Amino acid sequence: MRLRHIEVFNAVMLTGSVSAAARLINVTQPAVSRILAHAELQLGFPLFHRLKGKLVPTTEAQTLYPHIERLFTQLDDVQRLANSLKGDQREGELHILSVLALSYEVLPRALRFFRQKHPDVKVTIDALHSPQIVS
């Protein structure tokens, strides 16, 4: 599937109709129909059943959709990162894996200092026993 196919497929899944999908992504209704038809041709299977003017996702479409949702989540992450790279804005994430003993006293103190210098950084902490960390 091409990116345009994915965008149209996602819009149709979100809205449930070609006309609403067209409005969502700011293209014409015939363009959405054409792109959807081309995607189905390229894939070799239909994505939607057309029943009384409604689009009903096929089993294949329902199987694909969670992957498409993850892709759009990743695209949102890319957009957020691109926005944070403008100017002096720096946004990020810090993942910490620590042994339990350090997570009670040492880590909270260190994080307090880190937060003062980097308040916009998302921090996640996993405190585990040593054997869990090794594995």
Structural notes for this entry:
By secondary structure, this protein is of the alpha+beta class. The chain has 2 domains: 82 residues, Orthogonal Bundle (Arc Repressor Mutant, subunit A), CATH 1.10.10; 42 residues. Helices cover 61% and strands 16% of the residues. A hairpin with a 2-residue loop joins strand 1 and strand 2. The protein is elongated, with a radius of gyration of 23 Å.
What is the 3D form? elongated
> How are helices and strands ordered from N to C?
HHHEEHEHHEH
Strand order of the largest sheet: 1-2
Distance between the termini: 38 Å
Which CATH C-level class of the largest domain is it?
Mainly Alpha
Q: Low-confidence segments, ≥5 residues, pLDDT <50? A: none
Strand element count: 4
CATH architecture of the largest domain: Orthogonal Bundle
Percent of residues in helices comes to 55-70%
Structural class: alpha+beta
Largest sheet: 2 strands, antiparallel
Number of helices: 7
